[in-house]
Structure formats: structure tokens, C-alpha cells
């Protein structure tokens, strides 16, 4: 709800001397420090420049922990203790609700207090100077602690199957904040954002996988988030950076000792596999990574290796990796990703059987975005808010028409393509809401091509089609010649004997008779042909025969 308000003029806030943070604080303290409601002030650079005493009491923070920190329209990260300045992202107003001279009331905000994520209603007052009443220089936020907290629906109850029926972007914003807080992870949630049954099941599988030490493979198409999930599960299990073995792209790069990061662009031949396994084992020994030992095996530090695109390993590399996994002197374990089911590939003779079963103790399947289109509005909002974390101006949402187009598209590039489209749309947007014209031109062309689709191929019986044309042409010629077969043959460029054979073969005797009496048009034409053919009159000789 919005209410019109008057331009707010505070002494010291008019041009040509722009207000400083100290000036604003002193002016507002006289009014707001005595209020019971938490109040805060955000400047045009999205920085918190003032809070009253009630705000400090509600958040449990000190003044220096709030003032001067950014306030972005992005769902608050889950683990705010690691980055206190991001703790107040959830206090940002929805950018599309802010208009100079209008009060945006009942907006949803989120903040973590005492380790709990709280949802509150907040009224925002855009403040303009007297010299420029159309430009909001500051925004005052007044938190309503007396009102019932806005309904926070779990992601499982959200339904976005039809954007044309409307959707609530602020509810998406709150749902993303809830999701991040529930998972308590400090990493991007690309693969886990959504409300579909598939995503709900995927989140449960990821939580279960992160709580044990079993080897596993994540199977799915490129761009579906399988690589991200592998790193996520590793980080939850070990709290250490993963040693990543990338088998996908040919390059001359080799493993550099001491690095526990991505081995970019290397073919995992036997030598690279051996070096990477040794790196992971040495890292585990140095850091004493503990875990439950295998049955019958003495207790050893668990060495984890994240293996990307396991299905692309050469036969020699598979054999080397199997040897490293079965070496009793170490406890190497794998979190792998693959485009195909490795056990099925092994059954078909295309993968090492022992290795396939070993690293497929747990299997998590991911799917393409087109198979979970109900999650697209939430994913798009999530990517948009990620962009808000370090870009200006802040953008609040997509309008319903733009969301409907996003849901209609088939996304062959999956997550990466959706993220790219969101970023390009935000860069093109001149307001606070992304509309259809803001979507990239390449996206419009791709969607148009998808709508047109491939034309249905229709087979043609050429003999029957040509016969229909012949029938029509003979009928027309008979009509022009008034049934005279010699003239008809001349018009068609045939001799009379051949015409007679064609009339008999095509059962056109009735047409020939009707043409003589001028009743040809009264006969039903079984197969008219849409062709424009004009016959020139035939010049006759003195004997009444057509001139050749």
C-alpha cells in the first residue's frame, strides 16, 4: 500500500550544501531517538547512515556495526557471523516500491537477531530535498514491531506454475532468505533454489549426503548444477577447499603441488590422476581430516577428491584411479559428477565396473531447468538479487509478462544461460522493474524460433497430384473448345489420338459430352487445382479444322 506524503525538508539538507552523515544524524536524532519503533535511514548510495536507539535494541548491535554498512536488496546470507556488514541486506526496501512523495507501507524485511531470522513489516518514506522534490535523497524505514509478522511461507508451499496468474516478488525474496537461513551454508544456492517437488527432494538428498562420508556421484546434464552440488557437499563434509580434478578440456597444464583448488582444463590421464590422488592424500594427512574408517581398515585420514565429468575418464585413468582407491595405505574417497549413469555405462562395457560401483554408493540426479519450470521465477529473483549485492541501481523484480516469457523458454544452457539473461536484463533495465523489452534481443529471437518450431513435413504423392492437374487442364480445354476434341488436343499441345486415350484413362467422357452442350460447369469437379492457365482461341481453316 502507498500513501502520498509531503516533501520532507530538514534544516541543512537543501542544496547547494549536500547533507553529511553527521548533519542527517543530528537532525533525525531530535525526532526519532525518542520513538519506540526501530527507525533507520538509507542514503542514495544504499548505505545505512542512521539508526535510532530502538533499532539498536531490536537488532542487538552496536552503532558502529550498522551505520556505514551497505543495505542491498538481496536475501540476507545464512551465516551472517562471518560477514557482519551483510547482516543488514534484508533491511533494504523493494526498489520498485519507492517513489518520491509516496509512502511504501507494509513492506517485508528480514533480519537475523539472536541467531533467528525474523520477518517484519516496515514502512518506507522516500525523502526529497526542497530543491529537487522528484529525487529521493534518503529513505526512512520505520519497523512496525506491533503488527503481526508477514506470513512467511515455506518454499514447498509456493506455487509459481503460471506467472500469468500473478506472483508476489516480495514473497520470493522472503522465501529465498528463509531457504538460506535453513540450510545455513555460505555458498550460492543455484541448484537448490525453488519450490518444485524435484528441488524439495534434491535438498533432502544433499543434506543427507553432506552428513555422511560415503562416496557418491551426481548425475545430470551440463549446466544443471551438478558441479556446484559436488563442491557444496564436500564443503559441508570437510569444511576445507576441495581438491578438484577436471577431466573435460585438453590442455598442457598439470597439477601444481600445494594447490587445493580447481585443476583447470587438464585431461585426466593416468599421470594426472596419480598426482591428484597423492595431493589429496597428503593434504588429508597434513590437516588430519578425520572420518569413520572403512570396515576392516585401520583408521586413516580421509582424503577427498572431487572428480568432475567422471564419464570422460580414459580407460587408463580409470584403472589408475581404481588402484588409488583400493590402496590399503590410504583412504581416498570420491565425490564425482557425470552426464551419464556410470553403473549403466559399466554394464555396457564402457566404464570400469569396480570404479563405477565404488563411486556410485550414493547417486543424486539433477535435471535440466526445462523440467522444473515452476522454479524459474524464484531462480530469476535469486540471480537478480545476487546482482544487487555489488551493482547499482538496485532492481526489485521482473514483471509478470517477463516472468511468463522466462518460463516459456526451454533453456538449453540451463543455469548459466538463465543467470546470463538475468544479468543482461538488469543491465538494460532503466527502472526498478525488469520488463519484456529489457530481456536480451538474443533471448527474444530464441524464444520466437522456439514458438515457430519446425514445420510439419507433409509427404506428397506426386503421381496423384500430377493426375489432378491433368484432369483440371483437360476440363478447361474442353470447355474452351466446346467439346471439340481436335481443338482440345491443339490447346493442350497433344495429338488427337493421345487426347482420346487420356480422356478414356481419366474417365472424362462425361466431361467431353457436357462440354459440347455447354453444361460442363454443372458437373462436379472432384479435384480443382489452384492454377491460372489461359488457353488462346484456336484459329480454324475453311474446312472447319483447327489450323496447325
Short description:
The protein has 548 residues and is of the alpha/beta class. The protein is 37% helix and 15% strand.
For this entry, give a set of tags.
548 residues; 6-stranded antiparallel sheet; 6-stranded parallel sheet; 18 helices; 15% strand; flat; disordered N terminus
Contiguous helical run count = 18
Determine the strand fraction and express it as a percent band.
15-25%
Q: Please provide the count of β strands.
A: 14
Provide mean pLDDT, rounded.
Answer: 76
The best one-word shape is flat
Low-confidence stretches: 1-15, 78-82, 152-166, 248-266
Percent helix: 25-40%
Biggest sheet features = 6 strands, antiparallel
Oligomer, anyone?
single chain
Q: Explain this structure to me?
A:
The protein is α/β, with parallel strands linked by helices and 548 residues long. The protein is built from 18 helices and 14 strands. It has helices spanning 21-32, 53-59, 63-66, 169-183, 197-210, 226-238, 270-287, 315-325, 342-347, 353-359, 376-388, 400-408, 414-428, 441-452, 462-480, 485-492, 496-505, 509-516, and strands at 2-4, 39-43, 48-51, 102-113, 116-129, 132-144, 216-219, 244-246, 262-263, 302-308, 331-338, 362-365, 397-398, 433-434. The strands form three sheets. Strands 1-4-5-6-2-3 form a six-stranded antiparallel beta sheet, with helices on both faces. The chain has a six-stranded parallel beta sheet with strand order 9-8-10-11-7-12. The chain has a two-stranded parallel sheet with strand order 13-14. Helix 4 (169-183) packs across helix 11 (376-388), helix 7 (270-287) runs parallel beside helix 8 and helix 11 (376-388) packs across helix 13. The longest helix has 19 residues, at 462-480. The radius of gyration is 37 Å and the shape is flat.
Amino acid at each position: 500500500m502507498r500513501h502520498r506524503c509531503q516533501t520532507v525538508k530538514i534544516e541543512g539538507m537543501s542544496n547547494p550544501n549536500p547533507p553529511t552523515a553527521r548533519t542527517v544524524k543530528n537532525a533525525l536524532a531530535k525526532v526519532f531517538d525518542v520513538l519506540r519503533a526501530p527507525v533507520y535511514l538509507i542514503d542514495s548510495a544504499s548505505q545505512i547512515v542512521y539508526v535510532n536507539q530502538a533499532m539498536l535494541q531490536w537488532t542487538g548491535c552496536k552503532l558502529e556495526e550498522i551505520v556505514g554498512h551497505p543495505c542491498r536488496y538481496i536475501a540476507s546470507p545464512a551465516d551472517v557471523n562471518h560477514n557482519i556488514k551483510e547482516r543488514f541486506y534484508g533491511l533494504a526496501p523493494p526498489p520498485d516500491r519507492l517513489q518520491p512523495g509516496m509512502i511504501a507501507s507494509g513492506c517485508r524485511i528480514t533480519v537475523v537477531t539472536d541467531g533467528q531470522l525474523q520477518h517484519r513489516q516496515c514502512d518506507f518514506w522516500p525523502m526529497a530535498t526542497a530543491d529537487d522534490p522528484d529525487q529521493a535523497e534518503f529513505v526512512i524505514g520505520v519497523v512496525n514491531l506491533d503488527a503481526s509478522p508477514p506470513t512467511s511461507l515455506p518454499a514447498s508451499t509456493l506455487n509459481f506454475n503460471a506467472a500469468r496468474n500473478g506472483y508476489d516478488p516480495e514473497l520470493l525474496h522472503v522465501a529465498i532468505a528463509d531457504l538460506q537461513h535453513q540450510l545455513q551454508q555460505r555458498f550460492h544456492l543455484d541448484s537448490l533454489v525453488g519450490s518444485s517437488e524435484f528441488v524439495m527432494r534434491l535438498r533432502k538428498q544433499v543434506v543427507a549426503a553432506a552428513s555422511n562420508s560415503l562416496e557418491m556421484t551426481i548425475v545430470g546434464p551440463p549446466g544443471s548444477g551438478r558441479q556446484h552440488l559436488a563442491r557444496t557437499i564436500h564443503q559441508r563434509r570437510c569444511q576445507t577447499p576441495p581438491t578438484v580434478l577436471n577431466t573435460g578440456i585438453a590442455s598442457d597444464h598439470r597439477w601444481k603441488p600445494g594447490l587445493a583448488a580447481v585443476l583447470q582444463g587438464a585431461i585426466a590421464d593416468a599421470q594426472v590422476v596419480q598426482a591428484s590422488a597423492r595431493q589429496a592424500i597428503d593434504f588429508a594427512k597434513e590437516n588430519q581430516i578425520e572420518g569413520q574408517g572403512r570396515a576392516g581398515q585401520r583408521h586413516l585420514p580421509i582424503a577427498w577428491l572431487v572428480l568432475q565429468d567422471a564419464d570422460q575418464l580414459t580407460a587408463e585413468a580409470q584403472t589408475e584411479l581404481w588402484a588409488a582407491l583400493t590402496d590399503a595405505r590410504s583412504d581416498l574417497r570420491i565425490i564425482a559428477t557425470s552426464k551419464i549413469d556410470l553403473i549403466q555405462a559399466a554394464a555396457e562395457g564402457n566404464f570400469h565396473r569396480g570404479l563405477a560401483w565404488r563411486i556410485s554408493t550414493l547417486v543424486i540426479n539433477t535435471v535440466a531447468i526445462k523440467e522444473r519450470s515452476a522454479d524459474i521465477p524464484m531462480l530469476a529473483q535469486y540471480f537478480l538479487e545476487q546482482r544487487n549485492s555489488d551493482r547499482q541501481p538496485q532492481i526489485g523484480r521482473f514483471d509478470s509478462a517477463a516472468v511468463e516469457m522466462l518460463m516459456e523458454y526451454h533453456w538449453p544452457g540451463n543455469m548459466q544461460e538463465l543467470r546470463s539473461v538475468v544479468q543482461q536484463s538488469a543491465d538494460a533495465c532503466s527502472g526498478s522493474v525488469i520488463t519484456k523489452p529489457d530481456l536480451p534481443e538474443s533471448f527474444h529471437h530464441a524464444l520466437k524460433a522456439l514458438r515457430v518450431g519446425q514445420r510439419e513435413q507433409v509427404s506428397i504423392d506426386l503421381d496423384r497430384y500430377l493426375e489432378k492437374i491433368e484432369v483440371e487442364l483437360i476440363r478447361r480445354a474442353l470447355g474452351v473448345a466446346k467439346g471439340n476434341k481436335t481443338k482440345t488436343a491443339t490447346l493442350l499441345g497433344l495429338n488427337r489420338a493421345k487426347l482420346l486415350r487420356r480422356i478414356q484413362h481419366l474417365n472424362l467422357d462425361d466431361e467431353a459430352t457436357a462440354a459440347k452442350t455447354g453444361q460442363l460447369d454443372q458437373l462436379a469437379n472432384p479435384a480443382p487445382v489452384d492454377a491460372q492457365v489461359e488457353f488462346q482461341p484456336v484459329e480454324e481453316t475453311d474446312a472447319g479444322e483447327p489450323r496447325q
